[in-house]
User: Which sequence fits this backbone?
């Protein structure tokens, strides 16, 4: 089942910042690839998707973390949840790993 992606204002701004900074071109490409995998299959093995328990939105929905990069200092992660509708994924944030 393919999913459509929705972006919070924060996630949209995160993606725009990555796109604008030419020094982050490699990271932007990795994030775009991650988003494509999320659309096709959020359980794709390379995403290493897992529930992110430190973040719970107001509605109590589960939040997941997907890897855009691995074994890289400050590797980027994509935080997302299912919904609001069937077949939709909401991207919450796109950030470097602390």
Assistant:
């Amino acid at each position: 089942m393919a999913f459509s992606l929705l972006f919070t204002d924060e996630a949209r701004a995160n993606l725009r910042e990555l796109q604008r900074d030419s020094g982050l071109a490699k990271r932007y490409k990795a994030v775009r690839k991650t988003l494509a995998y999320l659309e096709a299959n959020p359980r794709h093995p390379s995403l290493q998707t897992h529930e992110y328990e430190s973040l719970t939105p107001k509605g109590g929905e589960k939040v997941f973390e997907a890897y855009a990069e691995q074994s890289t200092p400050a590797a980027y992660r994509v935080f997302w949840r299912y919904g609001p509708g069937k077949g939709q994924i909401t991207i919450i944030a796109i950030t470097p790993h602390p």
About this structure: Residues 25-40 form the longest helix (16 residues). The chain has two helices and five strands. The chain has a mean pLDDT of 90. The CA atoms of residues 47 and 67 lie 5 Å apart.
